[in-house]
Design a protein that fits this description.
Elements (H helix, E strand, L loop, with lengths): L1 H14 L9 H4 L1 H27 L4 H21 L5 H11 L4 H25 L6 H39 L2 H7 L4 H40 L3 H11 L4 H25 L6 H30 L2
Length: about 300
């Protein structure tokens, strides 16, 4: 009995399957090892993104978008300095910011010159100072009215189009497709828009100034009987040689600011198509505030004592 039991137990031990030791898949499969490395890098990237989001969580979203817009603007200016400019895209944007916006500039300039005379020329005529009408109109237009109104018109006509176009491309993943084609979206999309508005903003401002001062002369002659020679002599007497160049400098800076913020707000749009409208509205609000603050700085620099 003992011999049979011992033989039986030995047989059971012989036929009992041994438990194999677990071998890591990375040790036997290099593909799995590579996948594991990629997964680790992806996890690390997610952790870095989460850490960055935690750091920026206390900052308002508009401030983060403002910083991103300034970085995009810096990249665009750098690309322009290196002459990395698409001529065909630049031509299209010049037509949009120039002739495409001329009508609204024309109507507003004619109205501005006429309204200024209706408000100011009547009072000056009562005081016997009709000879100062042209000079006051020229100073007001060149130093403040023309650059600010031109910037406002370009914001409503051009900047909204920039923000809406780029915002739509962002939420529909067209920006990602451009990046996958090894094309820099800043050079392809932002540089032509920035350069076009920097070129056309001073041109539109000068057109606004000339049309407004002409409409002021016509309205003062028709409404108050002021001779044209007296009006233009007052313009020459009151204006200083640096008034028009300073006006163009203001317009150039405003054009750069408008284009950078509009493109930056468009490229930082996130969410669905509904967010494009709110992003465009946010871009307009930010541009108008930035232009107003920049106007204070430029006025002190250019005209301050």
């Amino acid at each position: 009995m003992r011999l049979g039991w011992s033989l039986g137990s030995r047989a059971m031990r012989i036929h009992q399957p041994s438990t194999p030791q677990e071998v890591p898949p990375e040790a036997s499969d290099p593909i799995a090892a590579a996948r594991g490395n990629r997964a680790g890098r992806a996890a690390a990237a997610r952790l870095r993104q989460q850490a960055a989001s935690l750091q920026n969580r206390n900052l308002p979203r508009w401030l983060r978008r403002l910083g991103a817009s300034l970085m995009i603007g810096g990249q665009a200016v750098s690309a322009i300095a290196r002459l990395r400019i698409g001529r065909q895209d630049l031509t299209q944007e010049l037509l949009e910011a120039g002739p495409g916006s001329f009508l609204i500039v024309l109507v507003t300039a004619l109205a501005a010159g006429t309204v200024f005379n209706i408000q100011v020329a009547a009072e000056l005529s009562k005081q016997g100072a009709s000879a100062a009408i042209g000079g006051l109109l020229a100073l007001g237009l060149s130093r403040e009215i023309a650059p600010l109104l031109t910037a406002t018109l370009l914001t409503g006509k051009v900047a909204t189009a920039y923000a809406a176009q780029l915002g739509t491309m962002k939420v529909t993943e067209q920006i990602d497709a451009i990046t996958m084609l090894r094309t820099d979206p800043v050079e392809y999309l932002v540089v032509p828009r920035v350069l076009a508005l920097v070129i056309m903003a001073p041109v539109q401002c000068l057109v606004f100034f000339l049309l407004a001062i002409w409409s002021g002369q016509v309205s003062s002659t028709l409404l108050y009987g002021l001779p044209p020679a007296v009006f233009w002599n007052s313009v020459r007497t009151w204006m200083e040689p640096n008034d028009v160049p300073s006006m163009l400098i203001k317009a150039l800076v405003f054009g750069l600011l408008i284009s950078v913020l509009a493109c930056g707000w468009g490229l930082t749009t996130r969410g669905g198509p509904k967010e494009v409208g709110s992003s465009t509205t946010g871009a307009v609000v930010m541009i108008l505030m930035a232009v107003a603050l920049m106007d204070v700085v430029l006025t002190q620099i250019l005209f301050g004592v």
